[in-house]
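lol so apparently i was supposed to do this last week
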Amino acid sequence: MISSKNRVKGSKAHYIVFFIIFLCGIAASFAIYLEECRHAYNNQKASGAYFTEKLNDGLTQYITQLSSVVALIESSEGGVSSSHFSRFARSLSTTPKVGFYFAQYVPAGKKYEYEMQQSVLLGNINFTIYPEGERKEYMPLALGYPDKFIYGYDMLYPQYRDINAVIQARNASVIMLSEPTLPPFSDAVSNSIADTFVLRAPIYLPVDVRYYKLTDSIGFHGMVGAYFSVGSLLNQVTPLAGHDLYYRLADISSNNPIWFVDSSAASSWDDGEFDTHYLSVAGRKWRIDTRYLTGISSRINWLLVIIPLLIFGLLALILAFYTRKLFLTYYSALESVNKRIEIDELTGLLSRYQIQRELDKLIVTCQKNNTQLAALILDLDHFKTINDAFGHEVGDKLISKVSKRLTSVLPKNAIVGYLGGDAFLVLLVHNDDQDMPQLNSLAKEVIRKISQSYFVDGLTLDIGCSIGVALYPEFGLDGVTLIKNADMAVYQAKTSGRATYHFYDGEMGRRFARNVRIETRLRQALQKESLELHFQPKVDLITERCVGMEALLRWNDEELGVVSPAEFVPIAEQTGIILPLGDWVFEQAFRHILEWQEQGITVPPIAVNCSAAQLKRIDFLPKLLALLSKYKIDPSLLEIEVTESILIEDAERCAELLRQISHLGMKLAIDDFGTGYSSLSYLKDLPFHYVKIDQVFIRNIIEDKKHAALTHAIISLSHDLGLKVIAEGIANIDQLNMLKEFGCDIGQGYLFSKALGANTMGSDPMIVALNKQDSLD
Ligand code: C2E
Ligand code: MG
Ligand code: MG
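anyway here it is w/ C2E bound
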């Protein structure tokens, strides 16, 4: 059965399903987001590297162009004209923003000569080296492109702005890049932005050409410069690489970096989310920082990130919906199953399971309130017969009608349940002992009402019922014990004739326990063959001769001691042990007869008691015949004693069997006559030879005139029907005399002899007498 706690858990299951699947979606989206970020960062890094590479390419291109100009100067013998230089430089420079110049080294002694030469070459008669003044050496600007220089300006003029860089470049034998500076030869004021770079290449001539060209002592012929603004360099690069990047550039050749470009005026570089690259060119080191124009988040393909979330979200919704639907179906199915567990379908009463639960609950309340509780088990009598005769469908309908009638008879506070089969359990709480008579009358009323006829499928059915009652707390403190005891009580009611009720008492329990013990021990006794047959003589009351013997079971158990057949035979009958036990008795009786015959003893007819269950067996007669042929014994040596009960249960079949046995030559006796229904018609119709009057009548025959009268009547009647009468249990001479007076034929009892063991036969005076008599005859 489902607890409400489990139900609540189940009702939340769809939330859990939704949450788990949605969480998976979040995880998947997050993984994709991370991957996208990583991808964007890598791309940003790659773009920065590409940007740096392009910068490097731009600078290298400038250096190459500068080298071409150097080669031009080196190879010109008579000097390069201004127009030639311009044409050459223009052809090199794809971007007009690069400028070239050549400054010629002029030692002091050649100044005048050089000025003259340049005036001719440049077509400018006013060419002079300036600023004026006598200096040791000069390096006037000789050629330039684009043509907007002041030719003749001495670059070795000590006050020249870039004199240090020029000297440094002269001393180095390689091309040197300047730090960011102002455009050369410009009139720019000192607070102008230093956004120009100059590549300077010193020209050293080989020894063989120095003689006709102006050089210093080590062959320094002058200097070629290429200058360009940062803007023009970046223009060359950014269309290719930098359009979606922010960048800033610094010259880090010295200890203090000189930042000369920052494309992100507004954005801050402080968050550290940028890439740094380094570039070394012509003696200088640049640092290049790059980052995407837009943040990394704008580089992420958000659709890719969101799609798993959407898919999982949708999946979560669908699955949550189905989970909820599944649980609802599951719970409704479970509820209907539970209902079936609680309520019995056939009767509409509480099921066996539920009534037991109710009983447990009631016990707890009774315990608290200090009240009594009665558990009544109602069991229909011979319901199986109706089931067998009319089928289970009719049986079921009858049970349903019985249950309805039962609930109508019972008081409102009674709880009724169906235990299955043909049994019901009724629970009644009653407050004190005064309720007891009420319980008695209720039980009677229930039996009366239930036993009234039913109409089922056009049939009129009659059925009785027996009731067993167990009271709480006297006879059971828990449900199981109460039901067990009520069961025992109903059993008792059944054995005492059915259609009655019985209250459980302690004695019943003890008796039941002993019966169970007897049952188990009896089974073992039968296997170990620890039973015995004793024989009680029957005496002809006129001749006082032994005319027969009754075989009686004797059992001396190791644990239980001597147990009377009056006690264990009924148990054997109820448990079915009587069948193997009966077989054993017959076999023993035959065996003994054979043994006695072999010992030369004249054996009188031996009467064997036979229970109803034995006679009901189809193989009873075949077995008997088999024994007769096995032991080769005259059937007339055997008598069979049966009680009336068998005749009531199955009169017709039994009559046929008894006739067959009689035809074999065996005598039949009706045992314990007078105690049961004692229908005299049996005596008339059935092939009985003897009537055995029950010892109850004989016991009181002297004291009780009614018993005497009954005994007398039975004897006369039996004689009239041609039957002989045996009186059981004759214990004294007065009884014997009275029976003789009544004309009784045969007697049996302790007055003559108790039942004797099989091996005492030869020494028993009655048998000995019988044998003597036989020999005289
Ligand atoms: P039953 O067939 O009526 O047997 C007679 C019973 O009366 C025997 O009791 C016998 O010992 C007892 N009896 C005989 N004379 C006297 C007497 O003078 N005074 C008293 N008080 N009792 C006397 P037992 O042997 O205890 O057997 C009881 C019953 O058990 C038998 O009653 C019979 O119904 C049944 N029984 C015994 N042996 C068998 C058997 O082998 N098969 C079956 N089916 N039932 C048996
Ligand atoms: Mg008997
Ligand atoms: Mg008897």
